[in-house]
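Example record

The entry below shows one chain as it appears in the dataset: sequence first, then structure tokens.
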Amino acid sequence: MSKLRTEDVSLAYEETAVIDGLSMEVPPGRITSVVGPNGCGKSTLLRSMARLMKPTSGAVYLDGQAISKLPTREVAKRLGILPQDPQAPEGLTVRELAAQGRYPHQSFLKQWSKKDERAVERALETTGVLELADRALDTLSGGQRQRAWISMALAQETDTLLLDEPTTFLDMAHQLEVLKLLERLNAEEGRTILMVLHDLNNASRYSHNMVALCRGQVHTSGAPHKVMTPEVLREVFGVEADIVNDPRDGIPLCIPYGLHTARVPAAFSPEAG
């Protein structure tokens, strides 16, 4: 099972610092959600951990090796990533999309095989889109389309999945559909899942571990009960909220009721300390 961590990672867009000296470890075989206000660097952090963005300092390590020094194909065999709002060519079918997940396993000497076919079929079946395999992506509902994209990541047959806002633009039912799928992938197949989520209550309910970012650094991390507190929500999001435990399972849920008088800046700022 792959182990993924960052060590003193700093990230910036041109002269604008986004992440500053951030260190974190992704618990293998667990579901971890990264949360934080808009502009705090959640998606940027995920891009760096997938080797899509180079840190200005520090490093991302995959199984003890600096990810920047690993071949792209090797990284793709060990990490599957679903970016925010992914795009596909018009008319691409669900099966064709899932098949793209097998590209890291192809080479000049190793062409499409029965193993590739089985991996695609298994991914389509696991995500519940096998019956939609010949449908074009642009004819699907939001939840179906998102499951189709996840099938592509599954077809890579990696044990670690990185997902940037997998529930974006989905209504409540489709959000639950996707999150239940990820929960099942973790429980039944032991997949390590790292995802960026905006909805704190969904993050609390479907994660073993939460990481709250603020000012370009990890403010608090740990089990949902440690992160979902009035103090953390006040300091990270600048909101006043009550925390109640779900009477069915004890999961902490937040009920925001106002803005904190001194709101915390979302993004990292040297002037802000």
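Notes for this example: The chain has one domain: 4-222. The first helix runs from residue 42 to 49.
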